[in-house]
Amino acid sequence: MKHQSPLRRRLSAAVAASAALIVLGACGTSNDEASNASATTSAVASLASLDDTHADTNDGEYDVDDATRIDLADGASSASGSGADAVRTTGDLVTITAPGTYLLSGELTDGQVVVSSSADGKVKLVLDGVSITSTTTSPLVVEESDETVVILADGSTNTLADTATARATDESADESSDEESDDPNATLFSRDDLTIAGTGTLRVAGNTNDAITSKDGLVILSGTIEVTSVDDGIRGKDYLVIEDGTITVDAQGDGLKADNESTETSSGKAKELGWFQLDGGTVTIDAGDDGIDAEGALNVTAGELTIASSVEGLEARQITLAGGTVDVTASDDGLNATAGNGGEAVQDGVLLSLAGAEVTVAAGSDGIDSNGNAVLSGGSVTVHSAARGGGDGSIDVNGTFDITGGTLVATGGLSGAPSADSDQGWVVASLETTVATGQQLEVVDAEGTTVASHTATQETSSLIVSAPGIEAGATYTVRAGAAGELADVATATANEYAGGFGGPGGGRPAGGPGGGSDSGPGGERPEGMGTPPEGWTPPDEMGTPPEDWTPPEGMEPPARQ
What's the pTM value of the predicted model, to 2 decimals? Predict the structure, then answer.
């Protein structure tokens, strides 16, 4: 069985995505195309590869004849083969103590398999029709190992489950220490690097906490993995990389997670913040919190990613969607690039890069939200926000949002716009009438040529569009309605937005945080408003303060009436 990393062979196709917004007019010059390709290639080149992880492309390979066989059975588990001396059986606890390949089959209704290998070398666990349940702890635990590979045998179905009993949580820690506990907190738990490979099926039920967790790196090379969890679904602390496979996650917490928060190590060498990368396969997530949450980078280079339900869809300091298809449904923000705290300041090192993927977002709040900068250099992006004001909308970028290529259509709440000096033109329009779901929207230039069109996926009264052929400073008309019955609903000048964004990077409407409709930035009194004259008292309708009210120092209270 030979498995090759899909990463490199897919990079050349990272910018090939079908557009949800159909570009009908001029497609740009060859210079534009070269510029867009350069920007996209640069973004892809900065992504990780399998070489940046512990895993190898051939980790899923093994020789059945050389494997040590472990037959699991309640009260009667046994080992046979050349490595049988490295297997200890105590009741329904099976412990593997040395590197090698172990072929497991059978069932433990209340037992555990533990890997405890201090020697250099990989421990390969081939699961071939395994079912392990534990009522007291994690059924499969890697206590110590140079590296462990869980291989799903071809045609096999394997099940791991715990029961809802008291056990460590991922937030637990020694009361005398600030260090996070590394007690087993998942049904499949590893303290060291973990790889999952093979062509079989693995079903994991996390009835107490997480389903699959590695305290170091976790790489999924292949296989069909079905996960349910009362907390997080699949968690790799240092990194979580999916090369291929079919992964389904139903988690009450985060769906997928890479949560290393510290760049310091005991050796003094720098360490990356937790990062995630999808290089292929099909991933479907239903999450009670974030669909995917990474402390550092979150990258998609290929494959199909569907966040069917979540609070926030994708959240990380840096999000790069360079290829494949990404479909996000979120009750709050859809794509959220953030350093972890809110506010309107531009956060250093925070970037959302849309560089070749086919992206669809349906969000209850912000569709595209970056607390730093954002860039669209390729691919297609379709966003709808259900927000209606309050600073939330389809686009919310604290810094610059530069567009150099690709296509964008955003509907629903209107809170921001791309940068005015973007290389590629864009149009923002508040529509004179509400466009119903299923109706058509078209952007038409002064000569009557349709440069872009879109079918509304939800009701909207605003539109943001960017596509090759839209030129800064030119006037465009937006038409909408049922097919064949379109009417003019807005006129706009490309790369201009009257909503109050300041500077090329955009911003927020006047008033600032804490300000009202007639207050200046930051809530200060606008110049020229003046101050009340000496002796001025408030009108009667302002009322009087309560009996026990004390005025601030230097302020005289109004006379009581």
Answer: 0.81
